[in-house]
Amino acid sequence: MTNPYRGLLPDLPAYACTNCGHWQRWPAPGPLVCPVCADVRNALPEDGFEFVTPAQVEELVEGFCRPTAVEGVTEFGTHPRFGLDSRGWVIESDAGLVGFECAPWYTAGMLAQLRRMAAAKGGFDVLASSHVHGYGALWQLQQELEPRTVCVGVRDLEWTKAFRVTWPADDELQLAPDLTLHRTGGHFPGHSVLHDRRRGVLFCGDSLKVDLDEAGQPVALSAHKAFHAQIPLSHGELREYLTVVGALEFQAVATPFELVRGVTTDHVVHLVQRLLAGPPDAAPVALEDL
């Protein structure tokens, strides 16, 4: 079926910030400032802003997709690093594939693989993201694959000029059987996490920062309003976060950058309780202390 929203997608050229990877639709010759880098939650480029077109990004990166340690979850990404180096998670469900977060760019090979997966697994009708740091090339997937549902928290619509949101999410929204979006707020007003109840995975966006050792095992957790500036969450934000995440059962987390086994509900609850017990703090806490 033809996507009725296709003709409503922005028709301006797309440009990516080389510092963070954020895509903007902007009249030629392109934007002068990246709103994501200019925001307090990201770092400014020391040598000034630079923006590249889709054709230029195609020359800069190669794509990959690979199964993860969790069955039914596939990782899409690019190398070498571009922007924030986000990952796109594709999750199998009883209603077809659900995409959460996106890679910085999707090569022809990556798009072909997604189309094969969609044909084998019941379609690709749902695409969502936790917040702007996980958007990657979401606009490209909407343009190329035409999912009927593109979902972002309603309080974060200001960051979505590169694509069209077809389902603004409030505090809770079921995207597919056993896959439910929950607004945590905190990092961004509309920041949301995706809970995979069947697999016990929390696609946590930037509600958590996971420190890994050289073997890729989790060793510490932290939570931030702004990671680069080391601004902690307020106590009010932490209490709201605890109310949401504390009610979800999981044994693994997926940030916009990695999927990690061994981070559980109890770890996150104890982290937030610890942060609520004293002055706001953005420092990592060892997992063994949680």
Layout: helices, strands, pairs:
Blueprint (H helix, E strand, L loop, with lengths): L13 E4 L5 E3 L9 H4 L12 E2 L1 H7 L1 E6 L5 E7 L8 E6 L2 E5 L7 H14 L2 E5 L9 H8 L3 E5 L13 E3 L2 E5 L2 E5 L8 E5 L4 E3 L5 E4 L5 E5 L12 H11 L6 E3 L4 E3 L3 H12 L8 E2 L4
Parallel strand pairs: 7-8, 8-9, 9-10, 14-17
Antiparallel strand pairs: 1-2, 1-3, 4-5, 5-6, 6-7, 11-12, 12-13, 13-14, 15-16, 16-19, 17-18
Helix pairs in contact: 5-6
Please summarize the sheet with the most strands: 7 strands, mixed
User: N- to C-terminal separation?
Assistant: 50 Å
Q: Structural class of the helices, strands and pairings?
A: alpha+beta
Strand content: 25-35%
Strands of the largest sheet, in order across it? 4-5-6-7-8-9-10
Overall mean pLDDT = 95
What is the helix content? 10-25%
Radius of gyration: 18 Å
**CATH class designation:** Alpha Beta
Count up the domains.
1
Describe the structure.
The chain is α+β, with helices and mostly antiparallel strands. The chain has one domain: Metallo-beta-lactamase, Chain A (4-Layer Sandwich). 19% of the residues lie in helices and 28% in strands. It has six helices and 19 strands. The chain has a seven-stranded mixed beta sheet. A six-stranded mixed beta sheet has the order 11-12-13-14-17-18, with no helix packed on it. Strands 2-1-3 form a three-stranded antiparallel beta sheet. Strand 5 (73-79) and strand 6 (88-93) form a beta hairpin. It starts with 13 loop residues before the first strand and ends with a strand. This is Metallo-beta-lactamase domain-containing protein. Residues 158-229 form the Metallo-beta-lactamase domain. InterPro entries: Metallo-B-lactamas (IPR001279), RibonucZ/Hydroxyglut_hydro (IPR036866).
